[in-house]
Amino acid sequence: MNTTTLKTIFDAFDHKSKYLKHSELNTGHINDTFLITTTTGCKYILQRINHHVFKDVPGLVNNKILISNHIVSKFPNLSKKEIRNSKLTFVKAINKDSYYHIHDGQFWNIMVFIENSITHEVVKNKEIAYEGGKLLGEFLNLTLDFDSSQLIEVIPNFHDMSFRYKQYTSSIQSAAKERLQKALEYIDIVDKSKEEMHILQNLKDEGKIPTRVAHNDTKISNSLFTKDNKGICMIDTDTVMPGIIHYDFGDAIRTICNSAAEDEKDISKVEFNIEYYNAYKKGFLEKTEDNLTEIELKYLPLAAKTMIFIMGLRFLTDYLNNDIYYKRDYPDHNLDRAKNQFKLIESFSEKLLNFSTINY
Asked: With 80 as the cut, is the pLDDT of residue 358 above it?
């Protein structure tokens, strides 16, 4: 994007700063993100939200601002500068909207850049895992008293297991014979796992697990750290919406505890890192244990297993559907991704004393 256009968009927001320069941040696969430096040295994150992926962008931005304002309200004694350097904060457009909308359907929002912060693409030691667990726990704690019904469902049925099985069943019916044959071992695993993998969904639907604010994208790169690896806050709240804490805990564990890349072809390299699991869980529970119900605590291990499974199921479904959702680099890429996740479940079960045999 050219400088003139970006500067025009930046100037549409009420930040009271003057554009100096920008650089593009390749931090995600969906939105376009730019770091804006101003003449005063203040920096901002300017983001174009992909309206093809997110169908209700105004609702999405409103979700983010509601949660940001709620968290900030918990720290009345912090100065404005301290808030800007420790909490996710947004800037409204000059016209008072929470976003800037231009004629071709583009939606932009802007947040304050938190100085002297870093992110990690992967967890390299248990200290980072522990701090990451604390950050998620604190996020869920700070939003515990927020009425999640005020939030729109940004991605309907995102973690709904019944919905994912319905997609899977449809893919089985239309899949090519060659793909069905290659996936046969994993089709068997999915079919045998159906009852167990619906436990959390059923508990949620029955109201036995409370619906709360959930972040819904808890990979470690969405946790912000100081340069000495102390947690600052959770970022990238595009997918914040009503959910259960198991979605967030489980997806974090899925992404930090795999010893190999998500698409590693050699599944002998895929192993569940129990040390990172225990460190993340320790940090998470330090912040949340007193506020979680007995049943929420009981099913935390199943949360990890379920969220690993749901990604394996989604990769397998896409493979059977001829790769219509996830980008691929070669014909069996999505099948390899699915194999990777199912191997991670196998390792998880072994490391947690064959958790799959525990009577829930």
From this structure: no
